[in-house]
Amino acid sequence: MSRGHAPTVAEYPPGPALPVFAQSYLYLQYRAALLPVLRRRYGDVFSLRIPPFADRLVVFSRPEHLRKIFAGDPHDMHAGEANNILRPVMGPHSVLLTDEAEHARARKLLMPAFNGAALRGYRAVVSEIAAAETGRWRPGSTVVTLDRMNALTLEVIMRVVFGVTDERTRAELAPRLHRIVNVGPLQYAGLRMPQLQRYRPWRSFHDTLGAIDDLLSREIAERRAAPDLADRTDVLSRLLQVGGDEAPLTDAELRDQLVTLLLAGHETTAAALSWALYELAADPELQHATYEAARADDDKAVEAVLKEAMRLHTVIPGAVRKLTEEITIGEWRLPAGTTVSCSIFLAHRRAENFPDVATFRPARFLDGEVEPNTWLPFGGGVRRCLGAGFALMEGTAVLREVLTRHTLAPADPRPERGRVRNITTVPRRKARIIVTPR
Fold this sequence. Notes:
Elements: H1 20-42, E1 46-50, E2 54-60, H2 63-70, E3 77-78, H3 79-82, H4 87-90, H5 100-110, H6 116-135, E4 142-144, H7 145-161, H8 167-181, H9 185-189, H10 200-224, H11 235-240, H12 251-265, H13 267-282, H14 284-295, H15 299-312, E5 318-323, E6 327-329, E7 332-334, E8 339-343, H16 344-347, H17 388-403, E9 406-410, E10 418-421, E11 424-427, E12 432-437
Parallel strand pairs: 2-8
Antiparallel strand pairs: 1-2, 3-5, 4-12, 5-8, 6-7, 9-12, 10-11
């Protein structure tokens, strides 16, 4: 990488000369191996070409670069446009896919459902669901953590977000939601190609998504007519009652926000919990300390375990923006149309940001060691994930229920590795643990 020169027009940082297809494939399937290699070879800023995600992607991970991107004018940096790969699933109204005024409106309408008071109300339900799940774990059994955390967080989504309580609707919705989540990255990348919809993997995906849309439409219509709507506290019921100076959300907008909350808040939290339980099982001393913290209602110490799992085992690789204007970031002047990536994966692996970077050490989140623009699982700036508080509350509540009921031990002596599922990174062997009652 060239250094020490004034920015020049339309100059991209260096990157691999591999064919575009090869770059896309490697990024989709093996990014945890690819990105560190590229940083070592080309420096802290490098380029990739990975259609259909981005024709030209420039990857940043230095805190000062991330600060500039996250603080950028939303008019100049479109996150929604950069996330367009998600449109076939989440829909055009998703808060992740809109920009400027439309995004600001959606965010304003969604925020009350995730404020502090709302989170306190949701916690009791999350704890109840977690207690029921962990209460079914048999002494001495092997728990397939990723599967059980997916089931648990899906139940949370259905009850806390969708407000679904009747068994018939849950029985119809749950397996379809699971199939939507459990899709490979190559299949996901093909969703934007209409010509593929005639073939089974993509056809079945769209059929499943259509069935989910029908179920959600029915649920929205029934909820609008519910006589107790004003007394209900689930997210859907709250969204049906927002408005004020803003026009209320239409049924189409509600559908897109609900599906977004499902995909952004279900599998990501399940993966983070799986990684956290895997690390706790591997470290009896840390596990005991976290158990004592849970017993003492020390949520900060329990939350630190979840945060460190999100750092060391990054679930979402990056936060992206598409430039609508020519912008200089560091020494690079980038033209309009460039997609810039704040690499969460690489930022979490910078030794200068995180001493003993490869060690699982939750205490770093309790001693003031973690600096701004270095820990970024929820992105940053005006596009920071609306559900960040919910995810941390949910994860902390679940860890507390697990640890106060069970002692954990690894079921497999081999170190757990990550694999890409849709756009997330999950434990390859599903983080199996052995549980015994306390």
